[in-house]
Structures are given as structure tokens and as C-alpha cells.
Amino acid sequence: MTTPEADRTPEHSEGAAGAAPRPEERLERAVTAAEKALIDYEIAVETFRVEIENFSRLHEQRLGPLYARLEELDALIAEARAARTGDPEDLRLAQEARARLAPIPGVEDLLHGWMDGQGLFPESVAMLTDRSVQPPPRVRPGEEARRLYRELVRKAHPDLAQDEGERARRDEFISRVNAAYARGDEGALLALQEEWAAGPVQKRRATPADELYARLEWLAARKDLLSELAGKLEESAIASMLRLAPDDPDALLDDIAQRLTGEIAEREAELVALGQA
User: pLDDT tens digit string along 93-105?
Assistant: First the structure.
């Protein structure tokens, strides 16, 4: 006795060679490929953003005080020159140099010593966060953190959601993934990987052709936005510095710090000379 399955001829079997594909199949494959490509692109842009943010923090920590000292010396030199010459133009330049250093008037009094025109004092941040005053940490996500981050984003990306409830769940989860990656916290990323594996598995349901076309259009628009963001990151001053020494940015900061220290010594000597003139 034969079964209905046995009675099927090859040309009528599901997926048999020569069977006419569904009209949506090629479009579905295109959407799937576009989604994967977009996720890879988002990972690359986010990784670049984290690298720039971390280098910017280190740049401010290491070079900020040197730049501040140079600006203070420029103001002192301008004031000493104006006091010596009495020239109205020198007086104007001295006032402008000093004004550039002054905080926004009244901010510190208004906010009762918590912050000035430059933002919260480190002591204020420490009180609000229960942490000691310390420089920002240098974070460079390692290879394992990068691998975990890529896997989590590919699995949990909000754009793979099929309804608003699932998108909200993914949005919240990815925000925690991004925070852990920005800290370079491999342990937290491993915990998030386990959390996602234990969560509900979402099955992708078939979509009509018009929805697939709309999806492709949305993916293209999203890629354009990411390209714009990547372009802005590439044009930033910090990115330009990173391009100068991609393998050893710390050495670049050392070189700049040495140059600034030399300029400070020159300004200090000029200030002394003006005082003795």
C-alpha cells in the first residue's frame, strides 16, 4: 500500500527541482540580505562611535589641562602687554582673552556651588553617583567583547521585530547591550547572551509582497541615515587624530602633550620677559 507522500511525483513535491518559486521568494531573500547587511553596518558604525568617544575622553583627560594652561597664559600675556603699552587695541585684546576664560556669570551662585559655566564639578558628580572623583576610564572593547556584541546585535536587533511589543523588548535589551559594550564589559555581555538565549524565540512570519517592498525602502532609508552619521564621525577632529595613529593613539597623545608642554614653557618665558620689560 502506498501513502499519499509516496504517490507524489518529483515535479509535485515541495521544493522539487523545476517547481515554480513563489513570487515573493526572491524579494524575501533580498530583504533578509539587506537586513543582515544593515545590522553589520550598524555594528561597524557603533564600534567606530565608541572608539571616538573613548579617545575623546582620554584626549580631554590628558590634554585638557594643558590647553587650559595655554589659554590662561595667553590671557596673562595679553594683560601684561596692555598694562605696559596702554594701547586701546591691546586693552581690547586683553579683555577678550580674559572673557574667553570666564564662566557664565552667576551660574555657580544660581546652582549653589554644584556647577559652573563649564558643567558639573567632579565633586558634584561624585556626590550624585556615590563614586569617588576619578578620571574617566580608558575603554577599548577587546576581541571577545566585539564578538559577543556582534552576535547579540544580529540576534536581538529591534529591526527584526514583527510587532511593536517585540520591538520595545528588543529596544530595551539592545540599550543594555550597547552600554555593556561601551564599557568593554565582557562579563555583562556574556550574561546578556544567556538572557537572550533563555528568552522567547520569535518566529518570522511570511509577509505580503507590498510589505516586503516597504521594508526594503525603510532599510535603504536607514542605511542613508547611518551613512550620514558615519560621515559626521569621519569628519570629526577626534577621528582625524585617530587616523594619524590608528595602531597607537596613546603615543600620539604623548607627542601632542610634549608639544603643548613646550609651548607652555615658551609662554611662561614670554610672560616673565614682559614683567621685566
Answer: 988 888 888 655 5
Enumerate long-range contacts of 61-69, CB under 8 Å, 24 or more apart.
Answer: 61/135, 61/136, 62/253, 62/257, 63/253, 63/256, 63/257, 63/260, 66/257, 66/260, 66/261, 66/264, 67/260, 69/264
- 123, 133 Cβ separation under 8 angstroms: yes
Q: Which of 3-7, 156-160, 166-170 has the lowest mean pLDDT?
A: 3-7
- Distance of alpha carbon 228 from alpha carbon 223, whole angstroms: 9
Q: Which residues pair with 116 in a beta bridge?
A: 119
Q: What angle do CA 132, 137, 139 make, to 5 degrees?
A: 155
C-alpha 66/C-alpha 257 separation (Å) is 7
Partnered with residue 115 across adjacent β-strands are 120
Q: Please state, in angstroms and rounded to a whole number, the distance separating the CA atoms of residues 49 and 182.
A: 9
Nine-digit cell string for 201: 524565540
Residues in the chain: 277
pTM above 0.90, yes or no: no
